[in-house]
Model the fold of this input.
Amino acid sequence: MTFWDLANNPLFIANWRERFRPSEIFSRAIVVLLIIGLIFCYVYFIEATPQQEFLKGKGPWQAFFIFALCVLEGYILLFFGTMSAYSMASREVSGGTLDFHRVSPTPSGHQVLGLCLGAVSVEWVLFGCIFILQLCVMIFSAGIFPDFFRALLVLVSFHLALGCCAFLYNLFGVLAGLMNHPKRKAANAFVFVVILYFLSHLLLALEGCYTYHLTWFPAYAHLSLMLESVSQGEVFFTGPAEHVNMFFGVHIPPPFLQFLIQTPFIIFLFRMVQRRITKPEHPLLSKPELLLLIVVVAVFHGGSTFFNGPGGDPFSVERDLSLGILVYLLIFLGYAGVYMATPSYLLFMKGWKRVRKLGQNSSGYSHDHSSNFAWLICYSVIVILAVILYGVVSQSPLWTCFIIGLFVLTYPWFFGQILEYFNLSRHHRSRIIMLVVLLVLWVFIPLFGYISSMPVWPETSLFLKYGIAPSPFFGLAKFMTVFRDSAETPYLLELLSINIILTVFAGICAGQERQKIKSSVVLEDNYLPFRNIE
Amino acid sequence: MIKVNSLRVDYENTNAVHDLDLDVSAGQIFGLVGPNGAGKTSTIKALAGIIEPTYGDIKVLGYDLELERQKALNRVGYMPDFPPVYEHLKVWEYLDVFAAAYNIPSGERAKKIRSWVARVNLESKHHAFIRDLSRGMRQRLVLAKTLIPDPDVLLLDEPASGLDPIARKDMRDVLKDVASANKAVIISSHILSELSDFCNAVGIMQQGKLLVSGSVEDIRRHVQSKGRLIVFLSEVREEMIQEAKSVLHGFSCVEHVEERKEGGLLADFSGCPADASLILAQLVLRKIPVCGFQCKEDNVEDLFFKMGMKEVA
Done:
């Protein structure tokens, strides 16, 4: 069976057959036909009449009919398709059928493809049917397009772009479905955080961030070219500012830029789903893959930020805002990465037992079972390089960049060490203790500092001055507001020292727990032989 | 065919299996017996590669499950304790999906499916939707799914749950056929009687540990198990009973002779069939009115309870 041999792909066959029952197809087809009919009536009988001010001077009804069908396709594939992917994937897990596929000889890559395409098969077929309808409308009204072949090319490339975007979203739906397990609250919470992060991207998208190309906006902005060719007035979707289609100062046509940016994320999501199927107890990405993801995101962020301003300006947005976005992006990636790169108690123990079984002395640094220490070092190298690159582009002093880099690094480092300590210690069953510790350090101490520095007490309290240091909310904000003021440098170094001391302390605690587990694994190897009948 | 060494399975808060050793050879039907929560399902899931053991070696057909997972699992059939099915598929479609998963060429699938559907007595349901099948039928369907790729190793977790007596007998026959084709079968159950008459080896699990394993005969010897001797008398007179008791006490292989409420005598018996013949002959010689004589051995259920009680003690 080859990768694209869907006719023999068990997960595709199962989902396709389940969804392609006449009753289901019939009801959906009726609803879609009804909507298409309503759109047609609206465009042809209402909007196209000469009395309607709204459409006056905007062009023939056929173009708007095609555009409206494109919007319908987007709803079907992106919204209903993703929902189907989520529900089918979550049912595979809860129903137990996924276990059968896990132990079968079908390669995991084939399973991911089968699940992603099979679960959304009805939506893809509807998408294909609507596309054929659009082509028919276009061919029968070829005369209205000044450049028919260009319009056809735009329509085809829109469908390719929307299809690519849909695959990305559908894969995300599959991943969320596979992780939705009633007993895995942490995993569910993680999915929730990732969804929030995606939604926050949509807000950023309007500001010209690379995340614009992770959405469906570029496809529709591209489609508006077709409308522009037949319309004298405004089009429905004018598209974003020109710099959004720039990458490191080079203008790239929107569909290509969208493929360029979405393809790596599709590969990463595909890999996450694959690992979720084959190794459900392991993190979604391996340690090297996590680092690669951070590099990719950093490059995309740089590509959409650097050299894209008007007249070759190094920045497309205001300089401090650009630095702020970079710093928070790196910290967010650091937190998310170190959360996934930190082994759980069981995973760490399994790793050491595996090491002993293979007769080795230590586990590889890139292995899921290993400590997050080596991962954090690699992450630090990426952050320092990113900040130095920023310094070169923005012509800032390298010393300042280095301090910024160090300050940024202390947050994921401290979180990584404290997480590893709590994961490996006897507290690993009660996560609430770690949450309380983090809440105290990140929120309560800074808030207490603010309260104790109210006008009743004229002097700034030590709590306010130094208690904010470990908090990524208060400490980092303070740092970002005063780091350009040279008079504040000693104070910033004090804050940095506090963070480094806390990180070293947490690191020592985590190291001790690692050592304890290694020792216990060595001791357990000497258990008594099992009583069995000869 | 299956060799397990020092298997340990942990979950976040519990140790499900602890230091388990197993060796199941070709043609053997190995029954894993134990109460709920003994670790049977975790053991079978670890053997099937569904959960990652904390420690231990699992070798299936000579391949290490951790290091050569795909090679090891290619010839393994796994059936869980509840039947995972696609509700909206038809019976033949469901089997076709898993025939495809095991790379059975599309030209051969229909024939294989028809033959296995017949083997598990679901011929009349060939085109029925799975959602319309009863629990027992689904169980049989999943058994057919497990057997379609013709695996060399079968891992069955409580396969008889939900089956009616006729279907249980059919399943036993199917499994005996499978084992006779030189395949290894591991089957778990807490319904002990359903294993005792067709498993040729048994392991008794409790609280994550395999208390004992081997053939039923081995286990009986291991726990120094005694059979029961029942003597039925046609006349229940005191002197006859005393006379019979004295005859029984005359044999070293008889202990704890007591009167039955229903009449007759009951005694622990650790002798061989020849000893039983001698006892009967002696009773008849002494003109004791014996109208029935039964020599009963412990079944797996009795052994299990004995093992459990012994361990708790």
In short: Strands of chain A lie at 246-247, 250-251. The longest strand of chain A covers residues 246-247.
